[in-house]
Design a protein that fits this description.
two-stranded antiparallel sheet; 331 residues; mainly alpha; 14 helices
Length: 331
């Protein structure tokens, strides 16, 4: 809003008090992110956008929806358009005012954006799917379009973008996806028992050696972390992934391994792509043993199933070589 002299006026001014009768003012308005011609010094800022409350759980949902039965192991850190649409449909984001076709446009636009391309060092034509950063950016775009579609009849909106995003997260993703995410992780928490933990402690050094053998190359680091894709390839090589369990079944076990809590609101965010340290790899094996026990209907003998899994993994990874027969029997 400008005075007749071109000075910027505060939009919250009471005009009858600030402007004389018969005086003139010029009002400019916009229905989108169009820059105004005159900078408004001291303009109130929108609340800062922060992923702290939701980013950790969204990272785990990203993993969950990228791990389909047909997904190649190397692609579990990238989200395809069908996976993106499936997640938003399950979250009830799509509607008559925000049809799936609109998501196609947003996906293509974000995938071909300068930021997405520069991060990958690729051209738009060969950028396949979203990484986690693209996924987060796309959610912001979806929130903006969703809010605009729902408030179209009321005219232009001055609602901050962060508020639009939080509204979509709370009303859709948190409300419809978090309960199932929590349920799937909680189903694995019964694996944590004193006898099972004692068995893991007994084989700890061998478990560490197994993880070390999952590396593509040795890296000097105070804390060893191995990309979950490399671990998954070894699980496949050992006759577990693809035979004993599927990639969609492995995904919640990875989440169980990475998160100390089963509550998505208390999840911690991790470096991307996800990687496992010694403790997390140990929890992964624990969760996989519970999957096996349920499939074989041997939950009552879970400790035995865990021991058999550890023995099989140690043998197939080759870490038992060099141990004498007495040491092997002690395991």
């Amino acid at each position: 809003m400008l005075s007749k002299d071109g000075n910027v006026l505060d939009v919250d001014l009471v005009l009858s008090e600030a402007v004389s009768d018969q005086d003139e003012v010029l009002v400019e308005y916009s229905d989108g992110p169009t820059a105004f011609r005159t900078r408004w010094e001291g303009r109130p800022k929108s609340p800062p956008l922060s992923w702290n409350d939701a980013g950790s759980a969204l990272q785990m949902l990203f993993l969950l929806y990228t791990c389909e039965a047909s997904t190649p192991i190397d692609a579990i850190h990238r989200m395809t358009l069908p996976q993106f649409k499936a997640m938003l449909h399950a979250a009830k984001v799509t509607s008559s005012s925000l049809p799936p076709e609109k998501l196609d446009e947003l996906f293509t636009a974000v995938q071909a954006s300068k930021g997405a391309v520069s991060r990958k060092g690729q051209t738009p034509s060969n950028t396949a799917g979203f990484d986690l950063a693209d996924f987060m950016v796309a959610l912001v775009h979806v929130a903006y379009v969703r809010f605009s579609a729902e408030s179209f009849t009321t005219g232009p909106s001055n609602t901050p973008l962060s508020t639009k995003l939080l509204s979509m997260l709370q009303d859709c993703i948190f409300a419809h996806l978090f309960p199932e995410l929590q349920r799937r992780v909680e189903k694995l928490s019964s694996a944590v028992t004193p006898p099972a933990q004692a068995l893991l402690r007994k084989g700890r050094r061998l478990t560490e050696q197994v993880l070390e053998r999952c590396q593509i190359r040795r890296v000097r680091s105070r804390v060893l972390r191995v990309d979950v894709r490399y671990v998954a390839k070894h699980l496949q090589r050992w006759g577990l992934l693809g035979k004993e369990f599927t990639l969609p079944e492995l995904a919640p076990v990875i989440i169980f391994a990475k998160q100390a809590s089963t509550d998505p609101y208390k999840f911690e965010q991790h470096a991307q792509p996800l990687a496992l340290d010694y403790d997390e790899f140990e929890r992964l094996l624990l969760g996989l043993a519970l999957l096996q026990a349920r499939v074989r209907k041997r939950v009552d003998a879970f400790d035995e199933v865990l021991g058999e899994l550890l023995d099989s993994v140690y043998n197939k990874a080759g870490v038992l070589l060099g141990l004498d027969q007495q040491q092997q029997q002690a395991l």
